[in-house]
Amino acid sequence: MTSPIPDPLIFNCSVMLQLANSHFLQSVLYFNLFCSAVAVFCLIHTWLSICRYKLMHFNLKLLMKIHCAALLIHCVPRLFLHLFDLYAYFFASNCYEMQPGSLRCFILRFPYMFGLILSSTTTIFLMIERGFATCYSQNYEHGYKPTGIVIGCCQIFCSLILMASVFHEYDFNAPHYYCSRIRERSVTATLSNRYQLEANMRNIRLLQSFTLCDLFFVFTCFTLSAPVHYYSSEMERATYHGLVEVVNFVPLYSVVMPLYLWVFRKKHRDIVTNTLQASLTTSSDHYFNVLNQQLSVREEGEKKRIRNKLRKK
C-alpha cells in the first residue's frame, strides 16, 4: 500500500523542524551572513573609489558602478534573509512561528535574484561599451555619455525581463519552509583618438582581471547549480537548501572581487609610478644619444637607398 502524497498547500511542521535543526544549513547561513556583512562595506568602498577614479571614461565607470550596485542589491536582502531565518530557528517557540511568510520571501527574494542576474550580465555589456569606445575612439573621449546610459538601461531592462520569467508563477498562498528559489525546476590618430586608445590599453588589463573573476563566478555558480537541482528530490530539504546557498556564493564573490581589483590597481599604479620616476632620473643626454642614433640609422638608410638607385641606372 503506497503512502499518500502530501498536499503542497498544507504546512508540514516536521519539515520545518528538520530545517531549523539542521547544523549544515545553520553553518551555511552563518558563513553567508558574515560574508554579506563584510561585502556591504567592501562594495561601498569600491563604489566610492570608482567615483573618484579619474582615468576611466564616464560610461565605463557607470557600468562598473551598476555592477557594484547589483551586488549590493543582492547582499543586503540576503543579509536580512539569513538573519531572520537564524533568529526564527533559535528563538521561535513553535514551528509555525519559524515559517517564513510569503510576502517576506517575495520582498527579500526579489532583490536577491535581481542582483544576481544583473551582476551576471555586466561582462556582456562591458564588452559592448568597449567596442563602442574602440570604434569611435577619435572623439569618444569628449562625449558619448548617452551611449553609456543607454547601455546601462538595456542591462537593467534585460535583467528585469529575466526576473519576470522567474517570478511570474509565484504563489502567495503556498506555505514556505525556506525562502529558496521561486521555480526550483529552472536551471537557469588625433590626440583624442590616441588618448582614448591609451585609456583602453590602460584599463584593458584591469577589465581582463574583472572579467576573469566574474566569469569564474558565473561559470562555477551555474555549473554547480545544475546537479544540485537535478538531484534535489533525493536530498533532505535542509541539505538541499544548504547546498543552494553554498552554490550561490555571491557574498563571498562580493568580498573577493573588490579586494582582487584593489590589489591589481595598486600593483599597476606602482608600476606606473616607478616608470615615471625612472624617466625623471634619466639624464637628458640619454635622449639626445637615442635621437642621434635614430637619425644616423635613418641617414644610412637614405644613403643606401640612393646607392641602390644609382647602381640600377
UniProtKB/TrEMBL annotation:
<keyword id="KW-0812">Transmembrane</keyword>
<protein>
    <submittedName>
        <fullName>Uncharacterized protein</fullName>
    </submittedName>
</protein>
<feature type="transmembrane region" description="Helical">
    <location>
        <begin position="206"/>
        <end position="231"/>
    </location>
</feature>
<dbReference type="InterPro" id="IPR019408">
    <property type="entry name" value="7TM_GPCR_serpentine_rcpt_Srab"/>
</dbReference>
<feature type="transmembrane region" description="Helical">
    <location>
        <begin position="110"/>
        <end position="128"/>
    </location>
</feature>
<feature type="transmembrane region" description="Helical">
    <location>
        <begin position="69"/>
        <end position="90"/>
    </location>
</feature>
<feature type="transmembrane region" description="Helical">
    <location>
        <begin position="29"/>
        <end position="48"/>
    </location>
</feature>
<keyword id="KW-1133">Transmembrane helix</keyword>
<dbReference type="GO" id="GO:0016020">
    <property type="term" value="C:membrane"/>
</dbReference>
<dbReference type="Pfam" id="PF10292">
    <property type="entry name" value="7TM_GPCR_Srab"/>
</dbReference>
<keyword id="KW-0472">Membrane</keyword>
<feature type="transmembrane region" description="Helical">
    <location>
        <begin position="149"/>
        <end position="168"/>
    </location>
</feature>
<feature type="transmembrane region" description="Helical">
    <location>
        <begin position="243"/>
        <end position="263"/>
    </location>
</feature>
<dbReference type="InterPro" id="IPR053286">
    <property type="entry name" value="Nematode_rcpt-like_srab"/>
</dbReference>
